[in-house]
């Protein structure tokens, strides 16, 4: 459906956020994605919602891909313009796909943080786990801007890491995992969601499978679930 853009915020020369009107009838589940494009244009890309299911707007977080077929035009979008937003949201990073209870780990690189922002804007997420940890690995500290304050404010353990310049936690999250962050992790006490580049997802998945974790899908819940961060 065609929806009006109500706000656009640019955080860096590569990252921006779009807010759109939300019709009362538009439904999605926290953690899902939908297809976005320009009305009457063929090219569409998958975007995770960053808005919560109870918010009265829809929000999406985007990277500007150099020469990207959609984002090289989308980056110029302004309030008052319209976008085509798919009305069949779907995805695997929902609470239906992982076992509830225990310690929930939400691991992201780059724009892979998006589905977690939606989950953390859904109050029921906090009731369903004893503890929530978010790790977010980005190249530069400025790449945390869009959601850093939000993640610092909510009731979670927040562990941002930066790989290409000095930072309080410097390096890939995999370095911290190797240094002991996951020494006590186990499928009967922990659940993990993974959202980042293919290499990141595969790396984390391999570690989890080794530890006995099983993958949740739209058909069966498991102790971990993954989705690729789409526009990257
Ligand atoms: P690095 O700067 O060391 O490549 P990308 O641009 O590939 O989506 O990467 C976003 C962030 O995720 C970067 O900080 C990058 O670190 C990090 N990253 C990329 N691949 C992996 C991986 N396999 N494991 C952990 N972090 C990764």
Key terms:
about 230 residues; 5-stranded parallel sheet; about 20% helix; globular; binds adenosine-2'-5'-diphosphate
Cα-atom radius of gyration: 17 Å
Number of strands: 11
Q: How are the strands of the biggest sheet laid out side by side? A: 4-3-6-1-2-5
Relative strand content = 25-35%
Compressed to H and E, one letter per element, the order equals EEEEEHEEHHEHEHEHE
Helix content: 10-25%
Distance linking N and C termini: 24 Å
Bound molecules: adenosine-2'-5'-diphosphate
Number of helices: 6
- Structural class, judged by helices and strands? alpha/beta
The assembly state of the depicted protein chains is single chain
Q: Which descriptor suits the 3D outline?
A: globular
Describe the structure.
With 232 residues, this protein is α/β, with parallel strands linked by helices. Helices cover 20% and strands 30% of the residues. The protein is built from 6 helices and 11 strands. The strands form 2 sheets. Strands 4-3-6-1-2-5 form a 6-stranded antiparallel β-sheet. Strand 10, helix 6 and strand 11 form a beta-alpha-beta unit. The two termini are 24 Å apart. The structure holds adenosine-2'-5'-diphosphate.
Can you describe this structure in just a few lines?
The protein has 232 residues and is of the alpha/beta class. The chain has 6 helices and 11 strands. The longest helix has 13 residues, at 198-210.
């Amino acid at each position: 459906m065609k929806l009006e853009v109500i706000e656009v915020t640019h955080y860096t020369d590569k990252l921006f956020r779009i807010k759109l009107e939300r019709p009362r009838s538009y439904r999605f589940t926290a953690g899902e994605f939908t297809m976005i494009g320009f009305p009457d244009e063929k090219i569409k890309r998958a975007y995770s919602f960053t808005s919560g299911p109870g918010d009265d707007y829809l929000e999406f977080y985007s990277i500007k891909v150099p020469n990207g077929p959609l984002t090289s035009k989308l980056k110029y979008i302004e309030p008052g313009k319209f976008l085509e937003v798919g009305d069949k949201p779907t995805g695997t990073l929902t609470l239906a796909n992982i076992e509830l209870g225990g310690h929930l780990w939400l691991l992201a690189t780059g724009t892979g943080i998006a589905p977690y922002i939606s989950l953390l804007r859904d109050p029921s997420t906090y009731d369903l786990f004893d503890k929530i940890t978010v790790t977010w690995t980005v190249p530069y500290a400025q790449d945390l801007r869009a959601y850093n304050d939000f993640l610092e404010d909510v009731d979670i353990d927040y562990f941002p890491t930066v790989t290409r310049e000095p930072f309080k936690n410097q390096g890939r999250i995999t370095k911290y995992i190797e240094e002991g962050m996951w020494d006590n992790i186990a499928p009967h006490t922990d659940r993990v969601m993974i959202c980042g580049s293919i290499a990141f997802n595969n790396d984390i998945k391999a570690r989890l499978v080794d530890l006995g974790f099983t993958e949740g899908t739209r058909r069966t819940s498991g102790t971990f679930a993954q989705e690729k961060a789409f526009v990257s």
